[in-house]
């Protein structure tokens, strides 16, 4: 466990260029700050926003929509700021994702409903909206997810995530609409769940 | 395992009086329907509505408020249809209850926040409103519970429970406002959680 004091000195006093310098980032940072910055660097390539991380595509923001239209043709798109995201067969066993696109305010939003066992043996649903855009662009919007049942309503309102950050950390932190299978039964109709989605500008 | 056919015949064809006939119930029912009815019979005594079932008091509806005022003096009451239910020290370990009374529309409502591990190792909060009144009276009201955080809002709207049915089955079925400790962090301030409660007539 011999410490390399010379290297430590370098790491705490010398500035390094960001990993995405060749893509346009002009920042130089201490080594200790570099990793954290690169995670949020606006020049980092965008990854495919489809949940499950099965698709390994990455590229620029401008290429995301063409990628979705070409490689994920099964995803439905609805127009308008106020739509219904209909998830069918929510009682299917195991981890399942439902995905839909919503187009409004000249932007594209991806609606995601995930069923998963964050806690073993306890299935929960997580619903969230992400903007096909940067974090800065996402700050201009708000979304509302609403479940309507007989004399019951559950509503979640928040800022959309940017696809640059993705939805997995928000789901991990329950920073989204969360409900378990018992509650889903109160709102589902014949195994189908309609989620009212409203996007607005702030 | 000899079947008593004579008794079975009685049980399926003879009407029995409700267990609460002496309190005023005039119904007579088949034995098979009797148990189910007695669970919801409006002449069944009211139990103490304080969560946890530690208090074994029971009595008539008219006696519930005097009981609460005499035996549960520590419960705070706020007046008005729109109040803030402040739960302090929500990070305390173990199962904890927070209780408050809200007085409006000439009725008394009991606000309940319970922290418990319905799923072992996974703490969740359950918030719900019950009317000090009958099921029929409860149908005349609606309540809204709202958590407000930085650019986030979670809202639950429903019909209050009657204290005659209690809140435990609703909590078991997630038929209330449900959130886990991760989500509580998004809305709590210094370990204290404010829940906006609004009662309305329907
Ligand atoms: Zn950078
Ligand atoms: Zn893809
Ligand atoms: Zn009866
Ligand atoms: Zn009591």
Describe what this molecule looks like in 3D.
- The structure is a homodimer of 202-residue chains.
- In chain A, 23% of the residues lie in helices and 41% in strands.
- The first copy, chain A, has 6 helices and 14 strands.
- The first copy, chain A, is α+β, with helices and mostly antiparallel strands and 202 residues long.
- The interface between A and B is medium-sized, with 23 and 23 residues.
- Bound molecules: zinc ion (4 copies).
- Residues 48, 50, 55, 57, 67, 71-72 of chain A line the site of one zinc ion (ZN).
- One zinc ion binds at residues 48, 50, 55, 57, 67, 71-72 of chain A.
Question: What integer value in Å does the Rg of chain A equal?
Answer: 20 Å
Order of helices and strands of chain A: HEEHEEHEEEEEHEEEHEHE
- Helix segment tally of chain A: 6
Oligomeric nature of the chains = homodimer
**CATH architecture assignment of the largest domain in chain A:** Sandwich
Could you tell me the strand content of chain A as a percent range? 35-45%
Query: Helices and strands of chain A: which structural class?
Result: alpha+beta
Fraction of residues of chain A in helices? 10-25%
The CATH topology of the largest domain in chain A? Apoptosis, Tumor Necrosis Factor Receptor Associated Protein 2, Chain A
User: Mind telling me the CATH superfamily name of the largest domain in chain A?
Assistant: Apoptosis, Tumor Necrosis Factor Receptor Associated Protein 2, Chain A
- Nearest-integer average pLDDT of chain A: 93
Number of domains of chain A: 2
């Amino acid at each position: 466990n011999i410490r390399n004091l010379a290297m430590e000195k370098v790491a705490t006093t010398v500035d390094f260029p960001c990993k995405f310098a060749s893509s346009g980032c002009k920042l130089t940072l201490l080594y200790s700050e570099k990793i954290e910055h690169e995670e949020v660097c606006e020049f980092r390539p965008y990854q495919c926003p489809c949940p499950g991380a099965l698709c390994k595509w990455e590229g620029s923001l401008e290429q995301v929509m063409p990628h979705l239209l070409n490689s994920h043709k099964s995803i439905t798109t609805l127009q308008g700021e106020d739509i219904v995201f209909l998830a069918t067969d929510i009682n299917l066993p195991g981890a399942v994702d439902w995905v839909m696109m919503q187009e409004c305010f000249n932007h594209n939003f991806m609606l995601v409903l995930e069923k998963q066992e964050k806690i073993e043996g306890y299935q929960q649903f997580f619903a969230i909206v992400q903007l096909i855009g940067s974090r800065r662009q996402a700050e201009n919007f708000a979304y509302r997810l609403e479940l309507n049942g007989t004399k019951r309503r559950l509503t979640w309102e928040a800022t959309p995530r940017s696809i640059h950050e993705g939805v997995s950390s928000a789901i991990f932190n329950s920073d989204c609409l969360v409900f378990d299978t018992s509650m889903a039964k109160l709102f589902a109709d014949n195994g189908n769940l309609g989620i009212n989605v409203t996007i607005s500008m702030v």
